[in-house]
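Lay summary. Proteins are chains of building blocks that fold into shapes, and those shapes determine what they do. In this project we predict the shape from the chain. Here is one chain we studied, written as its sequence of building blocks.
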Amino acid sequence: MGESPFLRDLVIVLAASLPILFVFQKLRVPAIVAFLFTGILIGPHALGLVGDPDQVRRIAELGVVLILFYVGLGFSLPRLTELGRTAVVSGILQMTLAVLVTTGVLLFLGQDLRPAIFGGLLVAGSSTAVVLPVLSARDELDAPFARQFLGTSLFQDLGVIPLILLLPALAGGTRAGEGPSLLAVLGRVGLAVASVTLLVVVARFVVPPLLDRLVRVAGRETFTAGVVVVILGMVAIAVEAGVSAAMGAFAAGIVVAESESMADVSATFVPFRDILSSLFFVSIGMLLDPGFVLSRPALVLGTVAAVVLLKVVTAYPALRAARAVPRVAIRAAFSLATVGEFSFVLALAGIGYGLLGERPQQLFVAVSVLTMLSAPLLVAAGARLVGFLPDYLEGAGEAPSASVLRSGHVVVVGYGLNGSNVARVLGEIGIPYVVVDAEADRVLRARAAGVEALLADATSPAALEIAGIARARAIVITVPDPAASRKIVRLARSRNPMAKTIVRTRYIREVDELRRSGADEVIPEEFETSIEIVARLLRSFHVPGNLVAAQIRILRDAAYRKLRDPLARPEAGRRLSALMAAGTSELVLILPEMAAVGQTLGQLHLEVDHVAVPALLRDGAPLAPPPLDVPIEEGDTLLLVGAHEDLVRATKRLEGTAPEE
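And here is the predicted shape, written in a compact code that computers can read:
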């Protein structure tokens, strides 16, 4: 029987990945790091379980293709708009500064120009996939610094696309002894980009309608086959145009993203992407020689420290230039200090062009793995550092106006969905208010809507002073950052104990701590959502408003009493089922389009539905009982009494939507 070394190596890779992934998940280490560690362990430089790493690497290149296909699925102008101007500015500046500083350092150390520039490109990217789980575990995904990090990091991920296209121009004639001029290489790259752009433009008008029709008339198997044909076809055309297969997959993703069936496409290929991308990271791990790290620990650890410092130092001014306030910029800069997973994609392409030698390759993989492992420590370090910032550095993003002396107003912290709704209602009622937000895009949006907004970090005493907290009647805190909310509550309480303090939080478990910090009212979203669901459900059954209010009060009392005393027993439901079975009442406002207009109660025969009308309200005056021969007018309000099912039928009779008997 013939041997199949590739299948044997593939089985070894997948079998070795499972226990390592399980252990790393228990340790809360990102999956990417687990796959890199698997490659190091079973690679030719350690246990040597894989006989031909090049074969695995070639299959892993399919993982790169699918990774970029999914990047293309998420690439859209609306998404770029969501990232905001600040993310684009900070992304461009951060990558530019990181490349320039790294290149300068490598040139000073004696590196040639082109490999030095390539080293800067590898360092510039940051890891989204590793840092996001860390932020999620800390419950900080919606914090201002996390939004700045995510916008900048996603922009970096998209920036890999043009960088891969420009690698031939950077490599020049370093591969296979070829020496085309830089101008010739750039010309070929420009022609390839133009070809792919034309392909995308044409395909966007043809492929999405075709896929949508296919998913309606054909089975799932046929639909999947059609998507595979589209992807492979665009990859083949891109390769013929002189672009890599990965770029063709990226173009296919952009096209398929325009289809209404994008969710089906994404769900279909997720297992393949996960398996092949894991092979990609395992193959990258196989490149690392543990002996290199063990023999040069000072070099590796020193480079890790230098890379982290370089990335923080270059990210901070980029974020500040994008109008992030100091506290937000520092925390986001530390979150951006890891080396990104897309840097491996760039490194793999660079190895093929001869831009990454053996020793730099070993150092790059070692530094990348160690920075990813240190992601939780870096995020925590940023959080600890901002606690030591002086007020003048940590505070507002703009100077206060000496002519502004706010008094008797409301301070609204955060201009997201909740904050903007609060501001709108306060404006309509005529209550003065000021908005404080640490994100420049939100402040610009607020000012465009005519809202008085300050670009400032509300966790700073200076920012709250500018907002006039000492003379405010109330402060409403809507930011989804529990730690920041607690600090803002304590600062507000210390400077104005009489101000009403209302805090929005996500989870009920945070209520008690916020109240201990000094909050008067804490509104947990997860619990209030359940309250609204119950209220709407009861109203749909025509339960009287006083009973709905009573049930909501019982639920709130029981929930918060349970929070204070876990052994407390819930209050009884006040015999809601018995009250509902006994019948109820309903108020019906007569609208112009209703069939009841102009008819009398005697003509409507509501008694057929077992519904009584004990009162009619007209022009503010009640008629009790209403005469049966008085025509019903637009604007009248009828009080209906009866069982729930009978009230539904009677209401439909008044509206004219009841079926004829």
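What the prediction tells us: The beta strands are 410-413, 433-437, 453-455, 474-477, 500-505, 521-524, 584-589, 612-618, 621-623, 637-642.
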